[in-house]
Amino acid sequence: MLEEVERWLSTRSWSVTDRPLHQILAAKQRTGQSVSVVLPALNEEETVGDIVAIIRHDLMQQVPLVDEIVVVDSGSTDRTSEVAAAAGARVVHRDDILPRIPPVPGKGEVLWRSLLVTSGDIVCFIDADLREFKSDFVSGIVGPLLTDPEVDLVKGMYDRPLRGAAGQGGRVTELMARPLLNMHWPQLAGFVQPLGGEYAARRSLLEQLPFPVGYGIELGMLVDALHLVGLDALAQVDVGVRIHRHQDGQALGRMSAAIYRTAQLRLARGHLIRPSLTQFERGEDGFEPRTFSVDTEERPPMAEIAEYASRKVA
């Protein structure tokens, strides 16, 4: 490990207990910064309501840490929107945001568009499929941004048990993302959960970053933030244990291919001969190929979007 990373681990890796809530609230009051929480959601009616309700109770009603909770629904066919709204979130549908640009499927697309419908100086992203959720996830990762002006982006780190077995990283993290980062961006080797969906950043940083529309959003954001603001502006906070649903092996394969493509674009912006992935499923006549595109469309920095610029002026 690079000496720079060892130093970073000792100065930019914290526990949620390092910043008591009263200290975070005092910093928020002193600096006047506002906090938005965004939950990207697609068919999450079983979990989204509990997450919203906990954040609202603990961090809006009990203490004034969070200023708004926005659930961006990217086309749910279940009751995600109704459940989220009943729990106290403002629900916005992806297709209603920036309608002149046709939306495409993908988490990164939703996060990018969320910048247009939130107002916080700090934007905190939380996945909507978490179970046994605790508000520490939010307070833990926004804490450094409120208390330390030199920090621009904070990732949550946690254990991710799989079928009851303890573990640190997810399968795609360990088999794809961590090797890529260690080999090509060794300054980022200290991140425990580089692909984790719980992180917060200053709006002033987010609006300058391109957003891969799909699974590559987390890796792409880390790499681009490193180049834009440097390692010391990035941090991570241990928030305990993350419990969520797990995808099957083929879905993880597609995720891995998209992440690799995102990394490749950042390595060379070079030519990819075949931006697709062929997988196999057993059918009536044996194994049948299924080919998926893994080319990764990206949205430009939000600061370049006219509607966003005009909103800021207004």
From TrEMBL:
<keyword id="KW-0328">Glycosyltransferase</keyword>
<dbReference type="InterPro" id="IPR050256">
    <property type="entry name" value="Glycosyltransferase_2"/>
</dbReference>
<keyword id="KW-0460">Magnesium</keyword>
<feature type="domain" description="Glycosyltransferase 2-like">
    <location>
        <begin position="36"/>
        <end position="149"/>
    </location>
</feature>
<dbReference type="InterPro" id="IPR029044">
    <property type="entry name" value="Nucleotide-diphossugar_trans"/>
</dbReference>
<comment type="similarity">
    <text>Belongs to the glycosyltransferase 2 family.</text>
</comment>
<dbReference type="GO" id="GO:0016757">
    <property type="term" value="F:glycosyltransferase activity"/>
</dbReference>
<dbReference type="Pfam" id="PF00535">
    <property type="entry name" value="Glycos_transf_2"/>
</dbReference>
<dbReference type="InterPro" id="IPR001173">
    <property type="entry name" value="Glyco_trans_2-like"/>
</dbReference>
<protein>
    <recommendedName>
        <fullName>Glucosyl-3-phosphoglycerate synthase</fullName>
        <ecNumber>2.4.1.266</ecNumber>
    </recommendedName>
</protein>
<keyword id="KW-0808">Transferase</keyword>
